[in-house]
């Protein structure tokens, strides 16, 4: 299976040297436009697609991010895996600014934003459950 990695992140994705053989691609999804155009290219020889979660101009507020369009857009262009980064503070005194952590729990505060993509695949609403046995953020 060939791998194509979709990366959703913040302002650090604007580094012009991050991608080799870079190009931009505009896409539209059943959920509207994603946060920004997709930047395609390679990192260490691996095909990658970068998407700035809040747009490269950082104009989209967290509660207005079109998560469904972002994920759908990356799937549309053939991404097989997603890496999603975020920056936030910690309530743990032993975790300091600049340290990298992997979450094993999270609180979804984006309850006001629709996040489901699966319902458009059928002509009726279906009940689905998310698997939380693996880290999700």
From TrEMBL:
Keywords of this entry: Glycosyltransferase, Purine salvage, Transferase
Keyword Transferase annotated: yes
Entry keyword annotation includes Transferase: yes
Name of this protein: S-methyl-5'-thioadenosine phosphorylase
UniProt xrefs under CDD domains: MTAP_SsMTAPII_like_MTIP
CC annotations in GO: cytosol
UniProt record, GO biological process: L-methionine salvage from methylthioadenosine; purine ribonucleoside salvage
Molecular function via GO: S-methyl-5-thioadenosine phosphorylase activity
Annotated ranges, domain Nucleoside phosphorylase: 4-118
Tree of life domain: Eukaryota
């Amino acid at each position: 299976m060939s791998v194509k990695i979709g990366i959703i992140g913040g302002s650090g994705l604007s580094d012009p040297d991050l991608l080799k053989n870079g190009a931009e691609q505009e896409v539209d999804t059943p959920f509207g436009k994603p946060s920004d155009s997709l930047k395609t290219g390679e990192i260490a020889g691996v095909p990658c697609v970068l998407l700035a979660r809040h747009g490269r101009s950082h104009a989209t507020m967290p509660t207005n991010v079109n998560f469904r369009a972002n994920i759908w857009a990356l799937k549309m262009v053939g991404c097989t895996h997603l890496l999603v980064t975020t920056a936030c503070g910690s309530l743990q005194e032993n975790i300091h600014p600049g340290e990298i952590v992997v979450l094993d729990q999270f609180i979804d505060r984006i309850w006001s934003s629709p996040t489901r993509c699966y319902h458009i695949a059928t002509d009726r609403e279906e009940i689905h459950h998310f698997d939380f046995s693996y880290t999700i953020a």
